[in-house]
Design brief:
147 residues, alpha+beta, Butyryl-CoA Dehydrogenase, subunit A, domain 3, 3-stranded antiparallel β-sheet, two-stranded antiparallel sheet
């Protein structure tokens, strides 16, 4: 198996992080949608109130664990061609961090939203998970064939 496929899957994460990563809704009304970059590094959004339709600017802080997961995916892409197994380890750690971030974000939304805010994970999030798993598997297979 070609180790370049592993690197390509990690680089695909750059695109996946541009896609909608998660959205927040209140009583079935979407109030915000964030890309992976916005989740990782923060942003300012125009938040629309589901009650009266008014909008206000709200600063959304970045999630450091998602930022580290993203950076580890980039490291995995950089080293996958030369050290396939090391790239797979970075991808595995990145995958674990994203799953931990999901749990943390859900808990924080439950606490801060007093149970009325729902977090939904979108295509970008699931595509990122899939690309990390695929890249890690390809990296392991490619490194075993080299040996």
């Amino acid at each position: 198996m070609n180790p370049q496929l592993s690197t390509a899957s990690y680089l695909g994460i750059l695109i996946a992080f541009l896609l909608p990563f998660m959205d927040f809704s209140c009583q079935g009304h979407k109030i915000a949608s964030l890309s992976g970059y916005q989740v990782a590094f923060g942003t300012t959004l125009d938040m629309k109130s589901p009650m009266d339709g008014s909008t206000k600017k709200q600063r959304i802080d970045g999630t450091p664990i998602v930022a580290v997961a993203f950076l580890l995916a980039l490291v995995a892409a950089a080293i996958a061609l030369r050290f396939g197994i090391a790239g797979s380890v970075c991808a595995g750690i990145s995958l674990i961090l994203l799953l931990l971030a999901q749990s943390s974000i859900n808990k924080k939304a439950l606490e801060e939203g007093q149970g009325i805010i729902a977090v939904n994970y979108d295509l970008g999030y699931y595509l990122t998970l899939l690309l990390l798993v695929g890249g890690a598997i390809i990296g392991v297979i490619a490194s075993k064939k080299k040996a």
